[in-house]
């Protein structure tokens, strides 16, 4: 009788631990959402024009490209890696697709496919070097950042793509919409939802978290670590390629170093959004909220006529704060789980 009564708690323990982790993640995402609401409300009080329809639309349009990059970066960071080449990939793809569509009777669909292919190829190179060659991700992606930049400068030869040379059908993708909703945010939301659902609902998606939580345990459990890490980099490159095409559609005028420095913005958005830099924890939804928060901060500073220097300072401060919170939460969860394990053993 005693054995039968003590069995259920032991079976429920893993669920309780998973529930604790889900609760922490939800708390992080809700705190970001709350900070976003407070920021918007305070700014609207100071300057009511901030919430005019055009202003709100501009925020979502500007955040969309960063959200796409953050979703791809999330996959990489969850596996305990990083991709610093995404900004360079965006610039390269934007210029290559701009060159392509500047010709006569160029297909916009083909331009998008070219952008996706270039981005996927860059991700494939990163993934092969990291997963199969064992080179540290920081070294690989820092190197490919400069290589891709160099290729972009070589192709550009000092030229730039002008909006007048870009087909209106492609420019409409960056400024148009359907049923009153802009295309760019819709694309970002669809991609975010698809990747988020895959990570949560499919066993192969959960394997990304297993790799980040404990690579050795994941290996012993039969998880194809190299294949999953390679997949993460290819998806990150693919989304960077898509972001490059959308960059061209959004801004029209493109130079060789478009999106230069954006790799740090992307990493900041991901970490501020609750994705642990040490891997294994976080969601694409939190990363998207982090991207939206950083974009909103930039818009708020412009509206309040604050020096743009403070945007970088605030981004750095939020990054340090997020990493510190991650560390404190990790220590707290470790203590809680140890107490629960000791309780069940006793």
TrEMBL record:
Keyword list, A-Z: Cell inner membrane, Cell membrane, Membrane, Transmembrane, Transmembrane helix, Transport
TM spans (from-to): 30-47, 59-78, 108-129, 135-156, 177-199, 230-249, 270-303, 309-330
Chain segments annotated as coiled-coil in the UniProt record: none
Assembly mode: The complex is composed of two ATP-binding proteins (LsrA), two transmembrane proteins (LsrC and LsrD) and a solute-binding protein (LsrB).
Localization per record: Cell membrane
Origin superkingdom: Bacteria
Membrane topology recorded in Swiss-Prot or TrEMBL: Multi-pass membrane protein
InterPro entries xref list: ABC_transp_permease
Keyword Heme: no
Transport keyword on record: yes
Role this protein plays: Part of the ABC transporter complex LsrABCD involved in autoinducer 2 (AI-2) import. Probably responsible for the translocation of the substrate across the membrane.
Signal peptide per UniProt: none
Protein name: Autoinducer 2 import system permease protein LsrC
Main location (coarse class): membrane
């Amino acid at each position: 009788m005693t054995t039968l009564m003590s069995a259920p708690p032991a079976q429920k323990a893993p669920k309780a631990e998973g529930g604790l982790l889900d609760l922490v993640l939800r708390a992080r995402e809700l705190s970001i959402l709350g900070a976003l609401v407070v920021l918007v409300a305070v700014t609207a009080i100071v300057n009511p024009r901030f919430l005019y329809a055009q202003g709100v639309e501009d925020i979502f349009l500007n955040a969309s490209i960063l959200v796409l990059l953050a979703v791809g970066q999330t996959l990489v960071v969850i596996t305990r890696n990083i991709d610093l080449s995404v900004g360079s990939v965006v610039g390269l793809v934007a210029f290559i697709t701009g060159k392509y569509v500047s010709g006569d009777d160029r297909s916009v669909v083909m331009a998008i496919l070219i952008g996706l292919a270039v981005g996927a190829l860059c991700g494939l190179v990163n993934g092969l070097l990291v997963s199969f060659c064992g080179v540290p991700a920081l070294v690989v992606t820092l190197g490919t950042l400069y290589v891709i930049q160099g290729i972009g400068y070589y192709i550009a030869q000092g030229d730039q793509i002008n909006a007048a040379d870009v087909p209106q059908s492609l420019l409409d993708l960056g400024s148009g919409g359907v049923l009153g909703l802009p295309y760019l945010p819709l694309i970002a939301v669809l991609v975010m939802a698809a990747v988020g659902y895959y990570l949560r609902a499919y066993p192969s998606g959960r394997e990304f978290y297993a790799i980040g939580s404990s690579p050795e345990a994941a290996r012993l459990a039969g998880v194809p670590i190299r294949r999953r890490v390679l997949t993460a980099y290819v998806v990150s490159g693919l989304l960077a390629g898509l972001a490059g095409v959308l960059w061209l559609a959004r801004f029209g005028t493109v130079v060789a170093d478009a999106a230069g420095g954006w790799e740090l913005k992307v990493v900041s958005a991901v970490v501020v959004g609750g994705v642990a830099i040490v891997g294994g924890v976080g969601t694409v939804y939190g990363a998207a909220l982090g991207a939206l928060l950083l974009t909103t901060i930039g818009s708020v500073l412009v509206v309040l006529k604050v020096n743009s220097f403070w945007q970088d300072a605030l981004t750095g401060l939020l990054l340090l704060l997020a990493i510190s919170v991650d560390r404190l939460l990790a220590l707290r969860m470790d203590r809680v789980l140890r107490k629960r394990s000791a309780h069940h053993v006793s």
